[in-house]
Design a protein that fits this description.
Layout: H1 4-17, H2 29-36, H3 40-57, H4 64-70, H5 82-92, H6 100-114, H7 119-135, H8 175-180, H9 186-193, H10 214-222
């Protein structure tokens, strides 16, 4: 048992400063699988080492995607290691052999959590979701049901379900993305509106968006050149400023 701080220090460097120099990297299987099961930031950091063992050393982890799915909670858009997590998640969901129900569960959960995400995270996750649709066309049924439920309780998707296969994501629709099309940030609304059109075959490059911060987003907006907007107005007439206002016949503003 290690203190959480030490766990993080070890896991941050394990994948590039330890595993490549071990004669038998598979000896770290137990350590990484235990760390992956702890939860929170420690689980996120354990993904790097696990990816190497799965990809290069044939590690079999039957509940890997179930655990990855459980890591998606509201804090995932705010944590320090967000870029690393979504980079690896993108790799894990890139296989065309994944079942549609699994990918649909990830898409739906990411979309639901996006309702409370900051703009800098949304500008990354919306292209991320578009890429998942490009890789897994069977999940596009979520887009072919544009009319969302009248009430959230009518959505067949079960957010609290820990097992992706039981979440009923494929029976749902992406009404969350439709809601984001009315987002207060124009770039977010524009990114969400892409799903209203037919998606191109070329995937979006999200590598430059993984590290996007609120400060960078603010600087980008501040540096935009202002555009002169012509304005028209009608002089106020009467108390309420309406045309043919009956009050204008009896009262006037000096």
């Amino acid at each position: 048992q290690l203190p959480p701080g030490l766990y993080k220090k070890v896991l941050v460097i394990l994948h590039d400063s330890v595993l490549p120099y071990m004669n038998e990297p598979t000896l770290m299987m137990d350590f990484l699988t235990v760390a992956y099961g702890i939860g929170g930031a420690i689980s996120l950091l354990a993904l790097n080492g696990l990816f190497i063992l799965i990809h290069q050393h044939n590690l079999e982890y039957p509940d890997f995607y179930k655990k990855l799915y459980s890591l998606l909670d509201p804090s995932i858009y705010h944590v320090k290691y967000r870029a690393r997590f979504f980079h690896l998640t993108d790799l894990f969901l890139s296989s065309s052999h994944l079942p549609a129900y699994l990918v649909a569960a990830f898409i739906k959960r990411l979309a639901r959590l996006a309702l409370t995400a900051p703009p800098e995270a949304l500008l990354m996750i919306l292209p991320f979701i578009c890429n998942l649709f490009r890789r897994h066309p069977a999940c596009r049924v979520l887009l072919h049901r544009p009319a969302g439920p009248a009430d959230m309780s009518e959505d067949p998707y079960v957010m609290e379900e820990k097992e992706p296969s039981e979440s009923r994501a494929l029976q749902s629709s992406l009404w969350e993305i439709q809601s984001l099309q009315n987002h207060y940030h124009p770039d977010v609304a524009k990114a969400a509106a892409v799903l209203n059109q037919s998606l191109s075959e070329m995937e979006d490059d999200i590598s430059g968006l993984l590290e996007l911060s609120a400060a960078e987003l603010f600087d980008r907006e501040v540096k935009k050149k202002a555009v002169d907007v012509p304005l028209e107005f009608e002089p106020v007439r009467g108390l309420f400023g309406k045309k043919n206002d009956i009050f204008a016949e009896h009262f006037s503003l000096d």
